[in-house]
Amino acid sequence: MTRSISLLGCITSLVLLAGGAQAEQARLTVFAAASMKNAMDEIAAGYEAETGNAVDVSLAGSSALARQIQQGARADIFISANTDWMDRLEAGGQIDGDSRVDLLGNAIVLVAASGAAPVEIAPGMDLAALLNGGRLAMALVDAVPAGIYGKAALQSLGEWDSVAPMVAQADNVRAALALVATGAAPMGIVYATDAVAEDDVHVIGTFPEDSHPPIIYPAARVAGSDNPLDAGFLAYLQGAAARAAFERQGFVVLAQE
């Protein structure tokens, strides 16, 4: 009898260990640009409900996430807010180029607190005067995609030199958005999708598409990942449920299943 109980205990332990290993395998880690927060919250919840698998989404500026991947951070999928950082990782062998897909498009906008008057964004707009001594909130202009696009647009419009001393740089675009939402800065440059996500700001102008490089969000599998969920999640990002979530947040969906 004792021997039978002992054998049963061993079998139970093995089953529990196997179950724990399966549970660990059924978890996915996604590094995604901070501007994707609201959409990724919805997509992760939908994916988990549909598949029973868990997904952990780490959000930050694309530059910070890319550097973490370069330094060996554990991630399965990377979604960047521009092609440059994905290109660097692909050139360095840190992402699987065959899995790469151009997933989304976006626009950059000028935002202000509710009640601010609309602004015509064009050469000669004199943004420095419109700031009236206040700061212009932007993501890091030499590292974070939203800041890079914003700086390029201001340069194209002939506004950068006069505005540069007034720029308050934030680690990522959501942090820049928060500066405007809390009143720390009267205006900011963020993605159109960020403006949708924040009730305390509104769009007062949209930058012309030809004033900055095309805004493209590529997604790819991280080269060091052997997670069997990778391909399925990339496909899910291109499917109908994810498309609806992205469009609700104002993204332009480029990829299709």
Automatic annotation (TrEMBL):
The keyword Lyase does not apply. SUPFAM superfamilies: Periplasmic binding protein-like II. The keyword Glycosyltransferase does not apply. Keywords: Cell membrane, Membrane, Metal-binding, Molybdenum, Signal, Transport, Tungsten. GO terms for cellular component: outer membrane-bounded periplasmic space; plasma membrane. Its main location: membrane. Belongs to the bacterial solute-binding protein ModA family. This is Molybdate-binding protein ModA. It comes from Pseudooceanicola sediminis.
